[in-house]
């Protein structure tokens, strides 16, 4: 059974969608660890409910990013994790983690990359007045929201949309696309 970790900083709806899809679809993979960089994030409660082990990392407790990422690496090794899924993890992955998990870290972004990278992908697309935005799943590299794209799904922005209704449709799309990509990569032996 393949062991993965999910990294999240906030609400954790993608964490839940991934974890439940793995259980319901009987995918040959276990979510062995949730790594979270905020001690009061809502995702922690969700992980407890789903009985996923948790590692909370306080970056301020380490002299630098490399040391903090080494502490994460130690936990990943202990849990025998072979791949990482970022799901609303609002931190740039540094060389320590990237070097240890080359081509084994995926991210989901709430826009059609390379358009609207960064922390506010949905709002930026909405304010730009584009007619179509969407969701991207990609491998990560050293830059923000870059790296080879694995899958994208377009989401139209309707005339009657508010930011809230668009956000809801984007999240719904994320919750379908991310588990589908995971299932596909596992099937192909690419993760
Ligand atoms: C998701 O929309 C994800 O695409 C986004 O954070 C949200 C987390 O929601 N990630 C980024 O913007 C990365 N640049 P969740 O905590 O409910 O899964």
UniProtKB/TrEMBL annotation:
Taking every annotated instance into account, which residue ranges of this chain make up the domain Formyl transferase N-terminal? 2-182
Entry annotation: catalytic residues: 109
Keyword annotations for this protein, in alphabetical order, are:
Purine biosynthesis, Transferase
The record lists the catalysed reaction(s) as:
N(1)-(5-phospho-beta-D-ribosyl)glycinamide + (6R)-10-formyltetrahydrofolate = N(2)-formyl-N(1)-(5-phospho-beta-D-ribosyl)glycinamide + (6S)-5,6,7,8-tetrahydrofolate + H(+)
| GO MF, any single term | phosphoribosylglycinamide formyltransferase activity
Q: Where along the chain is (6R)-10-formyltetrahydrofolate bound?
A: 65, 90-93, 107
Q: Which InterPro entries match?
A: Formyl_transf_N, Formyl_transf_N_sf, GART
Annotated site (Raises pKa of active site His): 145
Is ATP-binding among the key words of this record? no
Which pathway does the protein contribute to? Purine metabolism; IMP biosynthesis via de novo pathway; N(2)-formyl-N(1)-(5-phospho-D-ribosyl)glycinamide from N(1)-(5-phospho-D-ribosyl)glycinamide (10-formyl THF route): step 1/1
The keyword DNA-binding belongs to this UniProt entry's keyword annotation:
no
The record's function comment reads: Catalyzes the transfer of a formyl group from 10-formyltetrahydrofolate to 5-phospho-ribosyl-glycinamide (GAR), producing 5-phospho-ribosyl-N-formylglycinamide (FGAR) and tetrahydrofolate.
HAMAP family on file: PurN
The family classification in the record reads:
Belongs to the GART family.
**Protein name as annotated:** Phosphoribosylglycinamide formyltransferase
UniProt organism field? Agrilactobacillus yilanensis
């Amino acid at each position: 059974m393949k062991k993965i970790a999910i990294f999240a900083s906030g609400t954790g709806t993608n964490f839940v969608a991934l974890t439940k899809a793995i259980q319901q679809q009987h995918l040959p993979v276990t979510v062995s660890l949730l790594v979270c960089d905020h001690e009061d994030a809502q995702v922690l409660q969700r992980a407890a409910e789903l009985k996923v082990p948790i590692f909370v990392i306080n970056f301020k407790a380490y002299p630098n990013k490399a040391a903090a990422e080494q502490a994460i690496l130690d936990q990943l090794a202990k849990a025998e994790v072979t791949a990482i899924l970022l799901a609303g993890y609002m931190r740039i992955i540094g060389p320590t983690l990237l070097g240890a998990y080359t081509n084994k870290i995926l991210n989901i972004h709430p826009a059609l990359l390379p358009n609207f990278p960064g922390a506010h992908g949905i709002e930026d697309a909405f304010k730009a007045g584009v007619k179509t935005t969407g969701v991207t799943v990609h491998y990560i590299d050293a830059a923000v929201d870059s790296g080879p794209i694995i899958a994208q799904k377009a989401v139209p922005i309707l005339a009657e949309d508010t930011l809230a209704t668009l956000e809801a449709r984007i999240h719904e799309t994320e919750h379908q696309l991310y588990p589908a990509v995971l299932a596909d990569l596992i099937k192909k032996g690419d993760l």
